[in-house]
Prior knowledge:
By secondary structure, this protein is of the alpha+beta class. Helix content is 49%, strand content 15%. The two termini are 72 Å apart.
Amino acid sequence: MTSAGRWWRPRSLRTQLLFWLVTLHLAAAALTAWFTFVAYGDLVHNALDEQMRLVADSYAGSDPPRTPRPLDGNAALVRGAFVVQLWSADGRTLRASSWPPLAVVPLQPQPGFGDARADAPAPSRWRVFTAEAGPRADQPRVQVLQNEDYRRRRALRRALLEGLPIALLLPLALLILWLIVSAASRSLRAVARDVASQDERRPTELSLARVPDEIAPLVQAFNQLLSRVRSAFATQRRFVQDAAHELRTPMAAIGLQIENLRAHVPAGEATERFNQLEAGVTRAQHLIEQLLSLSRQDAPGRPMPGEPVDIETLLRESVSQLMVLADARRVDIGFEGSIAPVVRAPAAELRSVFDNLIDNALRYVPEGGVVDVRLHEADGHAVVDVLDNGPGIPAPAIGRVFDRFFRVPGAPVGGSGLGLAIARTAAERHGLRIELRNRDEAEEGGGPGLLARVHLPAAPVPLTPG
Length: 466
């Protein structure tokens, strides 16, 4: 058996504190109850013993001897009444008794206190006090008895009455303990929320204002780690920006030289090889521009304030700008808008979102395919849908298409694997959300293809008919 099997130990500090504090309070309450029972038991026994001695002395000192007042069984067994016995001087004959059935308990051989057991009329134990013999030879011996169960009941009742306030306050004390521990752990939960809300691309230090001293070193170490992460991100951004900037000029020069060489390339196989070279240079130029755009979006700082942007006008401009690419691939592209929402954000970053989604659809749809851009309302808020009739995205890859430089296996040549990553980064900066799903799984249906839906910010402005 492992150590975990031998002893349960909660991993939560809050649970451990509550467990041990509650256990300590319950143990203290049990110990207090036991001590109270023992203390009051001694007190009750001593007081009743003294009463028994006084009763015995009163009967032993009377001349002539008094006759004990009769008792019933209920008084002797339940109410703890004293049973008085008068024995002959030699202790052999019971002359009188307040409860005759208890004659089964004989006169004790030694004077003083003792304990006896009687099996009749009911099995029970009795406390016995036997008075000393009188000075006269014919003077009777006096013996007083009291039921031991009554004594225990009386001691227990007294202890319970004294412990009742503690028993009533214990749940309140446990509740206060729970509230105190919960309040103490609230700062830990606040730190956890701060950590969970961190932007992985722009991590910020955690505040130490409300952090307990015990976990302050942990938070400080985490802040140092975040500082190193920020430095690593900054180094990466500088490298990408510097490399992209340095490559723009030579790549532009190469593109210009290729354009100048086109007229001097002979027809045939050389032209085919020249076209492949030109396509590679164009793809490299596109990749450099994408890297620059991505590095700018990853730069630290708050999003730049933007002007109110008419989404319908912005989408029409994007479709018009990409019409050249659509014509080159003989793709039928269209726009349909039934609403005209306005979003407050930089127009350039909104264009980056929609241009990359539309460009991605145009590149993946087969020649002669269809791309539709729709602006409408879904579930009470404005959305932009970019639909195509291309091959869609395989289910295992649909969760990775937003990763940088990830390309779906079998994708056509020309992409860089950065378009969707750039679109998502720009969208998240301004409260937009991008959702991708295959059209055969979408409500719009209609055969193979991909639906890219952009959820605009909730109620940016009142929606009006387009």
